[in-house]
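Notes taken during the Thursday session

The instructor put the following on the board and asked us to keep it in front of us for the whole hour. The protein is Zinc finger CHC2-type domain-containing protein. We were told not to look anything up and to reason only from what is written here. First, the residues (146 in total):
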Amino acid sequence: MDELNNTWRDLINRLDRVKDNGKNHIEACCPAHDDNNPSLSISMKADRILINCHAGCSFQEIISALDMGNHSFSLSSKTNSESPKTIARYTYENTEAKKVYDAVRFEPKMFRFQRPDGEWTLDGVTRVPYRLPQLLAGIKEGREIL
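Then, after some discussion, the predicted structure tokens were revealed:
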């Protein structure tokens, strides 16, 4: 647990605009993209540190930007070796109904974004609303959009 606490303290010291949201949960600006509005959520659990960028940056991108690749974010080697189970895949399409990226939900609850080329990043991708073609069709037909 000391190793995890050391990683937690080091992580907090490397981040900008850290906001403490309660015991072992913080928000900060994501170092992996130009972040002016804190979009990074980090929580420390009993056996691991959970990191989530709400803008879609991957764990590896965040850790690389912080130069923390040699740190341990989990006490259990089992946690690092097991792949999370895919629960759902939400496809985001452009105005021509062409796939732009997927939001993939895993268990335990976590979302990651995947480009059509298989890369787990949104770098170089134009972000679009979910179900954009249906949204535009609804607007064209004069339906109420909620």
